[in-house]
Design brief:
By secondary structure, this protein is α/β, with parallel strands linked by helices. It contains 11 helices and 10 strands.
């Protein structure tokens, strides 16, 4: 395994005390970060919100591939020992290119279509995601491989992630968008709903209230944390940190910090960083 450009090797292994890098277009990936820290509290983390280019869902796929590779290479130079792509849209557009360009252990997200298919009793599952994710070949393969025997209601949610981030999960704008996007899933009797964007767990309770009683909501935070633990264990990279968390953005730190405080529930300093 070749070292990342500017990375660190010791006896063929990345030094354990280096941080795990987590990146998203914005702050939805904090839901994944919370799951990571819950399972691996001894690790250090560097969370990067690429808010200068938020929302990713409106960006061309070629741009997302180039941007994703650029970010991964910069995080490797910064000394990351592993990378979590905490963004479904970035995973759909860029995960394969990032894996081809980087030697870091990488965990990427994808909508939980496979577990949803296994859980559904009605044979109808719903997927809430960005338009870019639902249009991707990666998502189409997921459905074809794991849910082609079911009715899959794929509901694009334009503007929802941005509204959650800029207006807040409990804002009137988010409420109106949820009314529009969740209604089609409730109407067809979906009994499992996949939260196909890392922002959506912030409004999971509001989604559940708009669905029939007993619906199951699936997000990817816990499965990602388990997969990262497996990868780090296999590479003898577990531990070595002190639970330190650094948050950075390519946008305006003060504005991002205010949103982080609202979503995270405590104050976290945010620095500016450009890959």
């Amino acid at each position: 395994m070749r070292p990342p450009q500017g990375g660190f090797l010791f006896s063929g292994l990345y030094l354990n005390h280096h941080p795990i890098a987590v990146f998203d277009s914005g702050l939805g990936g904090l839901t994944v970060l919370r799951a990571l820290r819950g399972r691996l509290p001894q690790e250090d983390y560097f969370y990067f919100a690429d808010t200068r280019f938020l929302p990713y869902g409106d960006r061309p796929e070629a741009f997302l591939r180039e941007r994703g590779v650029l970010i991964a290479e910069a995080l490797a130079r910064r000394g990351a020992k592993a990378l979590v792509i905490a963004c479904n849209t970035a995973t759909a557009a860029a995960a394969e290119a990032i894996r081809a360009a980087s030697a870091l252990p990488i965990v990427a997200l994808e909508p939980g279509v496979k577990p949803a298919a296994a859980l559904s009793k009605t044979g109808v599952i719903g997927v809430l995601a960005t338009t870019r994710t639902l249009q991707s070949e990666r998502f189409q393969r997921l459905v074809g491989n794991h849910a082609n025997h079911l009715q899959v209601v794929a509901q694009a949610c334009p503007g929802l992630a941005e509204a959650i981030e800029t207006e807040g999960p409990h804002s009137p704008q988010v409420s109106l968008l949820l009314d529009a996007f969740v209604a089609p899933l409730a109407a067809v009797g979906a009994d499992v709903v996949v939260l196909g964007c890392t922002h959506y767990p912030w409004v999971a309770e509001a989604i559940a209230r708009r669905m029939p009683a007993g619906v199951t909501l699936l997000d990817t935070g816990e499965p990602v944390a388990r997969q990262l633990e497996r990868l780090l264990g296999a590479g003898k990279l577990l531990g070595g940190g002190s639970g330190q968390l650094t948050v950075a953005t390519s946008g305006a730190p003060a504005r991002v910090a205010a949103t982080v405080d609202r979503l995270w529930g405590q104050h976290l300093a945010v620095e500016h960083w450009e890959p």
